[in-house]
Amino acid sequence: MKNYLWNMFASIKNGQLAKKSVIITSRKNISESFLKILWNEGFISGYRILSQNDKKIEIFLKYTRTGKPAINSLKCLSKPGQRLYYSAKQIWKLDSSKTFLIISTNQGLKTINQCKKDKVGGEPLVVIT
Description:
This protein is of the alpha+beta class. It folds into 2 domains: 3-61, 2-Layer Sandwich (Ribosomal Protein S8, Chain: A, domain 1); 74-128, 2-Layer Sandwich (Dna Ligase, domain 1), CATH 3.30.1490.10. It contains 4 helices and 7 strands; from the N terminus they run H-E-H-E-E-E-H-E-E-H-E. The strands form 2 sheets. Strands 4-7-5-6 form a 4-stranded antiparallel sheet. Strands 1-3-2 form a 3-stranded antiparallel sheet, with helices on one face. It is globular and about 45 Å long. The two termini are 22 Å apart.
């Protein structure tokens, strides 16, 4: 898969461990669609493209009132050496109430609930708790 997507995951993890409010990563289409899902689900405060360099994205990390990160853990499921795919039937068997799963489908990145609604399968990228 794309190496820059895993770099962005690592940047988000490390930024939240260091209690940073803003991190800067490289801008790719798949990264923007991933950030759009995170923003819609309330895991980040927002993101924007830098005005000085349009190849970089500024991500605003979100924390709770007690100072804990909104994203407790970001775990990659499918790895470059060992791909993992779920069919539409297998996705229905997964419990989406405890964890948040982002799946790469032929229609773009989707959440597990969107995949169930659209009856489509794909490659699970990341589990967020």
